[in-house]
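Following the same procedure, backbone shapes were mapped to integers, as reproduced here:
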Amino acid sequence: MSDGRLPVRRRWLRWTVGVILTLLVLAIGWVTIRGIGAVSDLQRVSTSSSQLKAAIGEGDLEKATRLSDRIAHHAESAHGLTSDPVWHAFGVLPWIGPNFSAVSDVAEIADEVASDALVPVLDVAGRLDLASLGFSGGRIDLTPFATIEPPLADAAATLSAAEERALAIDADATLPPLADAVGEMRSAVTQAATVVGSLHGAAALLPSMLGAEGPRNYVIAMQNNAELRSSGGIIGAIALLHAENGQISLLQQASTMDFPALTESLPLSESSVALFEDRPGRYLQNITNIPDFTEAGPLVAARWQQRFGTPVDGVIAVDAVMTENLLAATGPLAFGPFTVTEDDVVSLLLSGIYTAVPDPAAQDQVFAQAAGALFGAALSGTDPKALVAALATSADQDRIRIWSAHEDEEELLAGTALGGALPRDDATSHVGVLFNDTTGAKMDYYTDAVITTSLGTCEGHPTTRVRVTWTNDAPADAATSLPSYVTGAGAFGVEPGSVRTLIAVYGPEGATPSRVEQEGGGADNVQTALLGTRSIVQHEVLLAPGESATITVDFQGTGAGNRLTDVEHTPMIRNPEMSREELVCGS
């Protein structure tokens, strides 16, 4: 007869299952409670970070220090709540695991940034007005930079590592609210890394570049985006700046007409010759065809030295759209017969000027007057904080590129966005689209681009697809309604009103084109070349007013298919519309 008790094996099984369920309930309760606490801490970090940014901008360092302490406390708490073994165990579970891992990663990044980046930056802020970088009355006080460089180097390294870790979080595998939070965190870390990296670069480079160790001369090449080149536009005006002990002055202005074409090209890389023949080496205006400013900068310096004999310590290239940012700081600007504001300066310099002043020589005089007036306004009487903000915005838009003839400075510059070097792939892959006008006119005021990328796998191969749609938005009667200087009047074989453009698409390092298509665009001139270590496909496209062309290039191989893919492009008057689409193989 049975005594009513379960067999030992069954009792043991029930007991085991009961223990497991109890532990699971406790674990779920544990991570739930700690998760709520961690999320609450991270929300406080986010709120305090916004307040900290405002406090630093207002120069209230006492408040900034209090907020920094608060951020560090909540970030450390969130990190502690999400770093225990139970939390990490939930991170390896299918479906829900990526959410736990993402919260843990965000908390750890916040803790590292708060402890290793905020403190050095606030220490620097106590020694130097970060809003103005010591700028006053056309002169920069170079004295504090030697002491602030080391802590800024530490902060920049921390933020760079944090940015790489933030980009590695698989936000696509998390729930939508968490994915949005990860995206916001990435944006904030990237912005901070860019700002602090730029401050560190300034601290390391400004003293010597601005003449602390002896006078310096810099060529300023001003690009016109109405006639596109890889780095922004054709060189339309050029000038020489002098820097000595932090004091900056405009020494000389020149016109591109002062630089006739050379009979023999300056030395060019194989990539530049393959894409643009010898034109960048013979014509000053075409040097900015070259997308790598570490190659283009020395060519501009060589042309100036050949023409005027003045030693050149570096080259700074800016584009016309930058004037919009600068006028936001200086206010309205008067030059020649014109007065412009930030709202209309680009339309005047890149379009209206050709109707108001038909003679090209007179246009050059107006451009020189505009450059002189803008330089004078920027260096005298402009709020330093607003001026630095305008320069930072322009740099963020890739509208400033700098090359130094001094090897140690160039080594530092080449690793920054300001250096204008081709990107290097690491955790993030890069693709790019370059636009170069061959109309020989100023019709790119009327062009627009849409760039989409798609990432994934096709037939077992990692694939990155780049699709570019290029449109000529000029009026239908452009041939007669626009000035001949704008349309080119057919001087280079293009019907007035039409636009002819070289559109080059480069892929990730190590990937090669597996599919190339063009829809529309008339001309069917396609070439494949190498841009440094990257494969690049260049099309020549010809569009009448109202027409569009679409170019699609699939890249496969190393670096392709990486969900962390950034898109670089030629700085334009209106930035291209950018989007990410699902990859549909064979379409």
